[in-house]
Amino acid sequence: MTTALTRNPWAGFALRRCWRLLVSLAVLVTASFAMIHLIPGDPVRAALGTTASPALVAAEKHSLGLDQPLLSQYVTFLGNLFRGRLGESISTQLPVSQIISSRLPATLEIAVPAFVLILLTAIPLGMSAAVLTKDGRRRRGELAFTTATGLLGAVPEYLLAVGLVAAFAVALPIFPAASQGGPSSYVLPVLSLTVIPAAVLSRIVRVETLRVLGEDYMRTARAKRLPARLHYLRHALPNLLTSSLTLGGMLFTSLLAGTVLIENVFAWPGLGATIVTAITQKDYPLVQGIVLVYGSASLLITFAVDMALGLADPQSTIRGS
Amino acid sequence: MPHLPSPSVPSSSLLHRLRRTLRTPLGVTALTACIVLAVVAVLGPMLFGAEADRVDTNAIDQGSSMAHLLGTDDLGRDIAARVVVATRLSLELTLQATVIGVVGGLLLGVAPTVLGRRLGRLVTATVGVLVAFPGLLFVLFLATVFGVGSTGAMFAIGVATVPSMARLVQNMTASIAGSDYVAAARILGVGRFRLVSRHLLPNIAEPSALFATQAAAGILLSFSGLSFLGLGVQAPQYDWGRLLNEQLNGIYVNPVAALAPGVAVVLTGLTFGLVGEVFAKASGRRAPLSRQQPPSEQSAMAPAPLPDESAEGALVQVHDLRVGFPDGREAVRGVSLTIGHGEALGLVGESGSGKSLTALALADLVPHPGRVQAAEITFDGHDLRSDPHLGTTLAMVFQDPMASLNPALRVGRQLSEVAEVHLGSTRAQARARAVDRLSAVRIPSAARRARQRPHEYSGGMRQRAVIAMGLMGEPKLVIADEPTTALDVTVQQQVLDLLAEVRTETGAALLLISHDLAVVAQVCERVLVMYAGRIVEDLPVAELVGGAAHPYTRALVGAIPTMTTDPNTELATIPGRPPEPGDADQGCSFAPRCALATDRCRSTRPELVGFDTGRRVACWHPVGAVLPLDVRPVDAEAAS
């Protein structure tokens, strides 16, 4: 299948996407390396405080490798990165990789259910809204839908989180307001991550559904007089899914970023809460490590979505650059 | 009011449009919200500054009261006053960050045009990589570099906006840079910077302003988020995010105080959004919400009385078929036709003559909000108005085979589902039948092809697959709507042969819709000529050349060049253009373009009447036809 690799549009597409992923990862790694050097003044002095002795500052600089020439620092950094070493936290002296591996699960435990919930609510919601309001039917319903989802889209996630806490933890004490605990403690954080992206995505799905329903092949499907279930699920869904997910792909990476704020609202012991503390404490190695994790995670998600779409809709491999 | 004295942008018309948009309810709301926001930002700190900073140890962490509308914080300061005072700083920081983002984005976006090709590509590629990262991650990275605090946060958020703005500007400049007037300016030797300032920037000003207002809303939210995280504004300064941060711990004591700054953020964000909407509307970039008028209920249009005689044993019997739209347009205006069992009938006319809608009405596929009315419409003995279930007795073949197959489904699946749904076949039976039907329309290695998706088929193969789809059941009528128009000339013949073959093998009737008389003449036995939503002539194919009675049919035939046409003469055309469906409907629709038209033609519409055997024509002055006495033209001017 060697000739197929060069001829097959899908293989070419996969190669281009892999190349883009590699370049982006290289940029991310270099940027996170350069971060500490971009900070104006003396970052180690700033991290340890003005009262720290010059000897302590020099020792910390040495342990961070900042006394080496820039190029050799970069090489050492890359070498360590490949071996999974991300240095030590300045404030706790613990290995950064250890902190990350102890905090990452808590983040994933709210991000993954939120991701699934967003898809499970936004797609049926957007499709039903489209089917109910197609060809200018139910003008008022259409207005209500676009207004409600539009308003929700204007609310930042962490404000919704505060609102949910006020409503369901303070006014009606159903769920705990903060910190990780039993299953009920997951409800509000996951909801806070879900509602707004779901509203935004359902708008996209609705518009895409309306576009698909107007296509010629849907008229062919109508001519076949299929039951509504087959008509919408088999003929419309796959077509609107590919285009909706292309547009909604950005939502998933922003979901990851959204965990930063949500974790701070709920005092959730995840990576997001950790990076904020690390930034305020000027714990640069820890910030660097978490930026690498978040950055590569979002690049991988984008890559995975692209590849999945390429498989599901081979035509997109030709359209996409 | 500031104005752009640029020659390439009709700035006055934008201002005019803006002014007009500001008078709409949307504009009034946006303007009011802006004024309120500006007044609060300017006067707030002056009026409430003292109260917001007054520490009152006797009133710590109080709830809402008359003295303190939203309660007090942990130093006894009035929260309502602090929310009002915070408006100024929140807006200032937002605007500053927006300026950084927009200016940086413009510089980086225009850079590829000004810099050489290599450097330009590098800039484009860098921007491409940067937009892939989530905004908040970029902000956190920059906040680490710029340091915690309001200035650092402002730069971080501003710089984080640059890539998306730069991407937008790059896309716009790329399209403008390729335009003719920029090429002309280049040829004239206009310098790069002059090109940017005179030609590029003025042309992207409008969309850039729109983006800036949308970006400002996003920046406001990011800034409040950053302050909320404790990375933005630091005490003793405070913006809304900072207030939210301070009040969150007291949410059990005073939830209103925790929500108030959030509400302020959302309302201000919505205001920016409204301003963006106004801009977008003024520059006409937003698709209007209402595309069509709301559909009215099925209006009770009185159907014409049923004809006395209805052809016995006809497969399709249609009388006075009308397809109308809610805005009053009528695209099909009373069509009556019959199709016999196994008959091949052609339906010809110019585009817009209503021939496709007539066919769609027969198949019950007229798109919403079109309304179908008919005095009679029966198919194979049952009334389609009461029972539109056609099952597999009617097959449709559409014009564009590239678009009429579902790109996401395998071709075999699209065929087999017909058998599963309508014939009760099992999945395996249906699949076998699909393969069988595909080979029946001569698709090579049908079993393998059935597993492929439409994009792996050529145009001709797709059309054959669509025909095969119609053959899954046992069709009594095949409606083919311009089945060869989108195809290659060599493939056209194959598809026509296939349709003819299907007819002989299944005994199905064929309704072939085309604007191509040659195609119809080849396949059909009888032709209906449509003009402006009505049938104007009904004649056997053999009579088409030389024997047509209606001047329009004769003109259509005359417009086809043949091998004997002198290549040096100009191609014959029909002068004028067909009427629009909404035009006044008086007299003969063809009269304005007809050389034989008289006053009678312009005032009274001729009905479709029969003459000879099986021929009908709607004309006051038919060519060479011997009409029954009662409709023979008796006007004085006709005699002369």
TrEMBL record, chain A:
What CDD domains does this protein's entry cite?
Answer: TM_PBP2
One of the GO biological process terms: transmembrane transport
What membrane topology does the UniProt entry give? Multi-pass membrane protein
Keyword Transmembrane listed: yes
Q: Which residues form the ABC transmembrane type-1 domain?
A: 104-305
GO cellular component terms, alphabetically, are: plasma membrane
Kindly list the places in or outside the cell where this protein is found, as annotated in its UniProt entry.
Answer: Cell membrane
Q: Which residue ranges traverse the bilayer?
A: 21-39, 110-132, 144-174, 186-205, 240-262, 291-312
InterPro entries per UniProt: BPD_transp_1_N (IPR045621), MetI-like (IPR000515), MetI-like_sf (IPR035906)
Q: What is its main location?
A: membrane
Q: Which domain of life is it from?
A: Bacteria
UniProt keywords (A-Z) are: Cell membrane, Membrane, Transmembrane, Transmembrane helix, Transport
User: Does the keyword Transmembrane helix feature in the UniProt annotation?
Assistant: yes
UniProt family annotation:
Belongs to the binding-protein-dependent transport system permease family.
Put simply, this protein is called Peptide/nickel transport system permease protein
Instruction: Cite the source lineage.
Output: Bacteria, Bacillati, Actinomycetota, Actinomycetes, Kitasatosporales
From TrEMBL, chain B:
Instruction: State which residue ranges cross the membrane.
Output: 26-48, 93-115, 122-148, 209-231, 251-276
One biological process term from GO is:
peptide transport
Keyword annotations for this protein, in alphabetical order, are: ATP-binding, Cell membrane, Membrane, Nucleotide-binding, Transmembrane, Transmembrane helix, Transport
Molecular function in Gene Ontology: ATP binding; ATP hydrolysis activity
User: What Pfam families does its record include?
Assistant: ABC_tran, BPD_transp_1, oligo_HPY
Decide whether keyword Nucleotide-binding is in the record.
yes
User: Record's InterPro entries?
Assistant: AAA+_ATPase, ABC_Ni/Peptide_Import, ABC_transporter-like_ATP-bd, ABC_transporter-like_CS, MetI-like, MetI-like_sf, Oligopep_ABC_C, P-loop_NTPase
Q: Which residue ranges does the record assign to the ABC transporter domain?
A: 316-557
Q: Which family does it belong to?
A: Belongs to the ABC transporter superfamily.
PANTHER family given for it? DIPEPTIDE TRANSPORT ATP-BINDING PROTEIN DPPD (PTHR43297:SF2), OLIGOPEPTIDE TRANSPORT ATP-BINDING PROTEIN APPD (PTHR43297)
Q: What is this protein called?
A: Oligopeptide/dipeptide ABC transporter, ATP-binding protein, C-terminal domain-containing protein
What is the source species?
Streptacidiphilus jiangxiensis
> What is this organism's lineage?
Bacteria, Bacillati, Actinomycetota, Actinomycetes, Kitasatosporales
